[in-house]
Amino acid sequence: MHLKSENIHPFNYLLSRESKEQLLKQHAKVFWFTGLSGSGKSTIAKGLEEALHLKGFYTGVIDGDNVRTGINSNLGFSNEDRIENIRRIAEVAKLFLQNGAIVICCFVSPTEEIRNLARTIIGADDFKEIFVNTPIEECEKRDVKGLYAKARRGEIRDLTGVNAPFEVPSKPELEIQTKNKSVEESVSEVLEFCIPILTLKS
Fold it and tell me: Is 198 helix (H, G, I), strand (E, B) or coil?
């Protein structure tokens, strides 16, 4: 439970988001990658960031593993902690958004409730959900972190897709089916989706 103080007064930014977007020559948005562990979220996000950078866009990536070793290192994987994990990240992403940045977020975010929480905090117009749709069998083949093997042996509890549910997004802005598709093809598909959204009209 979070207690709110009457002595907290959010700062009104002296420079508007629009002013910063004009300086950066881009529309700020949050691209929220969701999918199973091992689906390719981080790999595709990295490729997207590199491609956008080469085109002159200012971006930032917020990745699940990096966040859990820092700002959210005190959180576990219970439903309550998963919700708090996403709440904090959405608030951080919103701060970057208000400063004109393009934010690329990579989180399993397994339920509609959690993803809708992020969408509400960030704002529906600025939140673009990208579902990296990779069959769990393919994710297990990759299993670069060894998570699925540990979960099958009972060494890990609450692994999404094995002993915790993953709710398929009902209306993502973009769905990438990665099976039989190269990373480059997936990145190209996302890039084609992003560019019209991010480009300022002259």
Answer: helix
Give the domains, in start order, of the chain with CATH numbers: 17-198 (3.40.50.300)
Is pLDDT larger for residue 190 or for residue 157?
190
**Given 37, 39, 42, 109, which residue is catalytic?**
109
Q: 184-193 contacts: CB < 8 A, separation 24 or more?
A: 184/47, 186/40, 186/44, 186/47, 186/132, 187/44, 187/47, 187/48, 187/51, 190/31, 190/44, 190/48, 190/130, 191/48, 191/51, 191/52, 193/130
2 has a pLDDT exceeding 70:
no
| Residue 109 a catalytic site member | yes
What is the percent of the chain with per-residue pLDDT over 70, rounded to a whole number? 93
Mean pLDDT score across all residues of the chain: 89
